[in-house]
Amino acid sequence: MFVLLLSLYIMNAASQIKYLDLLAYCGYKYVGMILCLLGGLIFHSGGYYFLLLWTSITIAFFLVRSLKFQIVSPSHPDQYNSPRGGQRRLYLLLSIAFLQPVFMWWLTAHLIKF
């Protein structure tokens, strides 16, 4: 959480996202983690990996669609909002969206018996 806020500050990304909003968006991975663990308990490792793939795709899609308007679009034009700055904000958005599934796997893979 702190790393995301620090990277927003360092990149000088003028965004409308607040601390609690970012915390809520990062918390959606726990719903997917619970679904993956339930699938792993019922269907063993096959169910775990299928649900991990499905929830990873849905969470990444949801985060890209919902954070796109808060991080990528500049809230007000100034000298810092150049095309290069928009590209950096897009990279930040994609890294947030695609690191959540990695964290989901990292936090739950050791709980499923193979």
- Put simply, the count of helices is 4
Q: Got a strand count? A: 0
Mean pLDDT figure: 83
Approximate helicity band? over 70%
Based on secondary structure, the structural category is mainly alpha
Provide the β-strand percentage band. Answer: under 5%
Shape summary: elongated
Q: Gyration radius, to the nearest Å?
A: 16 Å
* Terminal residue distance: 32 Å
Order of helices and strands: HHHH
Largest sheet: none
Low-confidence stretches: none
In short:
By secondary structure, the protein is mainly alpha-helical.
Description:
The chain has 114 residues and is mostly helical. Helices cover 77% and strands 0% of the residues. The protein is elongated, with a radius of gyration of 16 Å. The mean pLDDT is 83.
